[in-house]
Structure formats: structure tokens, C-alpha cells
Amino acid sequence: MKRVYVQEQWCLACHLCEYACAFVNSGQKDMSKALKGVKINPCIRIEERGNISFAVNCRHCEEPLCLKSCISGAISVKDGVVHIDQEKCVGCYTCVLACPYGAIMPANSGKVMQKCELEMEGGEPACVAACPNRAIVFEER
């Protein structure tokens, strides 16, 4: 199965992946209307440590620790994609603590927790499509 992989040596910390993620998850058709004047809350984020930058996102693990730790049964895997059911999530943060990648975070917009759900844009995740330097790739390894 294809997964999102990070190649930190190519990351420019341009944050375009964050904007693409926020836009595709907004449900709107016009990016400027969806994001202008809005504090974005993407499911991917760029971390910068010294002169290294890299994307932090869900790796959709084969055996997700977040799923094993979820006390409400809100996390499931369908077709290799780890998904959070917002109706079942109680916001206990055990998934946040269990994720070895730091990819699950509290949401700001009507959701309890959020993470990458592999929102596709033209056959690949929106963050991958937006990355000008191929620092984020969607491939099978």
C-alpha cells in the first residue's frame, strides 16, 4: 500500500503542504476564500529544528498504536487509512500520547481530534501534490 513518506533533506519549510491540507479539508472550492484571514489548522505540520525542517503527519501504520490505545473505539483502519470517528471520540488524548510520530492533535473546528486522513487531490494526497520540492512523497516502499 502507498503511504506518505517525508524526505527531510528536501524540505524548504515553505508550509505549502499545510495550506493545501487546510484547503482540501475546508470543503470549499476557492482557496483564497477558504483560507484568507483564517488561522489554518492543517492535519500536517512543519517542524523546524535548527537548519532541518520536516513534515509531521500520520504514517497510517500497519499496526497503529493510536488504534490500540483508543478507549472509545473511535479509531479504525479502512483500506489502510487510519480514521478517527468524531462521533465516538471523547477527547481523552490517549491517541496523542500513543502516536510515535506526534501526528494526532486537538482540532479547532468542530472536531475533537484530527490527523491526516489522506485527503486526495488528483490521485495523491493534497500535501504531496503541493510540495514543490518532493519533500513529501506518496509511494510504496
List the helices and strands and how they pair.
Elements lengths: L2 E4 L9 H11 L4 H5 L9 E5 L2 E5 L8 H5 L5 E4 L2 E4 L9 H5 L6 E2 L6 E2 L5 E2 L2 E2 H5 L5 E4 L2
Antiparallel strand pairs: 1-10, 2-3, 4-5, 6-7, 8-9
Organism: Candidatus Avidehalobacter gallistercoris
InterPro entries: 4Fe4S_Fe-S-bd (IPR017896), 4Fe4S_Fe_S_CS (IPR017900), ET_IronSulfur_Cluster-Binding (IPR050954)
GO molecular function, one term: 4 iron, 4 sulfur cluster binding
Protein traits:
24% strand, alpha+beta, two-stranded antiparallel ribbon, globular
What does this structure look like?
This protein has helices spanning 16-26, 31-35, 65-69, 94-98, 126-130; strands spanning 3-6, 45-49, 52-56, 75-78, 81-84, 105-106, 113-114, 120-121, 124-125, 136-139. With 141 residues, it is of the alpha+beta class.
